[in-house]
Design a protein that fits this description.
A: alpha/beta; 6-stranded mixed β-sheet; 4-stranded antiparallel β-sheet; globular
Chain lengths: 248, 270
């Protein structure tokens, strides 16, 4: 069976700073993979590279066996197969929720407006946002913004959903509703890669947790294993600090 | 008006009235006490000349309004094209970006009146086949080019003020670079710079009068013609009043709008 998403020896540098130094990562269909690690370890960069928002310097990324980092690949077609949600939601402030969610379908994918809005309303209802379809982002809470951003990412029916620290910008009392959304997606069989600082959540929802350090995957294991008995001293050190800070 | 007079209260109002009378009354007295005032009054504020000059100057002012109207269509379009050219990404677009930079640098660097003279008198003299010969046409072209250069920079500052993450998320939902610009970036960019654009409109409305150097018979030119015929300058006052009648409401509106806009902007997220 081919993996849903596979990164082979992926390298990426910004100027002189090598952010990814040979990432190998395999994500099977319906699998939820959590990327954990200290700030600057490359979690977000991995996600941005997979969505082709940043171009990798070396290596290969395969989506369902297709090399999406090869020359001449239609990046817009690839992005349609992948959904991404950002830390700071990034909804378009000049559009209401419904227009935010349907913009890609209407403008890029040639879906008729009525059709796009019907699908959008279904999704918004599923995530408890039906009443906010005509609200503008600055009139909603961070949690509502983030859930709307998830809906926007789901509009293309993506094969893989990438979540980049989607709860980091939220007030603590709003984290729960967004995590519940992700949990529901996981239960529905969505293939997901999450960069996260929510260790408790990672332990709960992930099939595999990857510990990243200085641009490499140091350790990848089921959460029970990685959190209870990390094999790498760096992992242990990181987890100790997290426990000390009361985040696990 | 309340804001103009400061704090509420009778005492504050009284102070405002007294100080206004002192300042404005003093100024008027100073002017009127000049030994030459009767002559100046006759030269600039003559009622008969005012009535005499008004029809021609008002007629010319309509032409100003026409020029203004046309420029209001041509400038934003050209400016937007230049701003978009300048904000394109990727090495393939380097020549386009360079062209936009050169356009802006050169046209911002030439005094408007000089550009109007150069194009207005220079290009018709070339007698190139297919090109219009009218000096006014080239004057308008000069006005458009110069203002477009400034306006393009205003647009660009608006584009630059849109966070990079907006571009990322537009690309992420499958929009092409062009679609991202058109549907996600530009609408925000234009909103960012509306107050600055409106200030440009106010100054454009006045700079249209520079076309008089090419002989276009607009308000200032008509006033000049009256003056050279009668040696009386009241016609200039007619033109001045006409410009003020248009620009003061515009300026007030810009202030009001910018104020409201800033307040809306500063309403924090819930």
């Amino acid at each position: 069976m081919t993996a849903k998403l596979e990164l082979r020896n992926v390298h990426k540098a910004f100027g002189d700073v090598e952010v990814l130094r040979g990432i190998d990562l395999t994500v099977d269909e319906h699998e939820v993979v959590c990327l954990i690690g200290p700030s600057g370890c490359g979690k977000s960069t991995i996600l941005r590279c997979v969505d082709l928002l940043d171009r990798i310097d070396a290596g290969t990324i395969l989506l369902d066996g297709d090399d999406i980092t090869a020359r001449g690949v239609d990046t817009d077609a690839v992005r349609r197969r992948i959904g991404i949600v950002f830390q700071s939601y990034n909804l378009f402030p000049h559009l209401d929720v419904l227009d935010n969610v349907t913009l890609g379908a209407r403008r890029a994918h040639g879906v008729r407006q009525a059709e796009a809005e019907e699908r959008a309303m279904d999704l918004l209802a599923r995530f408890g946002l039906a009443d906010h379809a005509r609200a503008y982002p600055n009139r909603m809470s961070g949690g509502q913004n983030q859930r709307a951003a998830v809906v926007r990412a789901l509009m293309t029916d993506p094969e893989v959903l990438l979540l980049d620290e989607v709860t980091s910008a939220l007030d603590p009392e709003l984290v729960g509703e967004v995590l519940a959304t992700i949990r529901e997606l996981a239960a529905g069989g969505m293939t997901m890669v999450l960069a996260t600082h929510e260790m408790g959540f990672a332990r709960d929802v992930a099939n595999t947790v990857c510990f990243l350090h200085e641009g490499r995957v140091l350790e990848a294991a089921p959460p029970a294993e990685l959190f209870e008995a990390p094999t790498h001293p760096r992992t242990r050190q990181f987890l100790d600090r997290v426990i000390e800070a009361g985040r696990l | 008006m309340r804001r103009l007079w400061g704090e509420e209260g009778a005492k504050a109002s009284l102070i405002a009235v007294v100080s206004s009378v002192l300042v404005f009354g003093g100024g008027a007295w100073l002017v009127a006490s000049s030994p030459n005032w009767p002559r100046v009054r006759d030269q600039f504020f003559n009622r008969d000349d005012f009535v005499d000059a008004a029809p021609a100057v008002i007629d010319g002012f309509w032409r100003n309004l026409q020029f203004f109207g046309i420029a209001m269509l041509t400038i934003p379009v050209l400016a937007l094209v230049v701003a978009i050219m300048r904000s394109l990404r990727g090495p393939a677009f380097f020549p386009i970006r360079a062209l936009a930079v050169i356009f802006v640098d050169v046209l911002r660097g030439i005094p408007l009146i000089l550009l109007i003279l150069l194009l207005g008198f220079g290009l018709p003299a070339l007698q190139l086949p297919g090109l219009p010969r009218g000096t006014t046409f080239w004057g308008m072209t000069a006005l458009t080019l110069s203002y477009a250069a400034y306006t393009a920079e205003i647009y660009r500052s608006g584009i630059d003020a849109v966070p990079e993450s907006q571009r990322s998320s537009a690309r992420a939902i499958g929009l092409t670079q062009w679609q991202a610009l058109r549907f996600a970036i530009l609408p925000q960019a234009v909103r960012n710079v509306v107050p600055a654009l409106m200030n440009t409109v106010v100054s454009l409305q006045k700079d249209v009068a520079l076309l008089s150097v090419l002989g276009a018979r607009e308000a200032v030119r008509e006033a000049q013609i009256y003056t050279s015929r009668t040696f009386n300058y009241t016609s200039y006052m007619v033109a001045t009043l006409l410009f003020l009648a248009l620009s003061i409401p515009m300026t007030r509106f810009v202030d009001y709008y910018s104020d409201r806009y800033r307040r809306q902007r500063s309403q924090a997220q819930i």
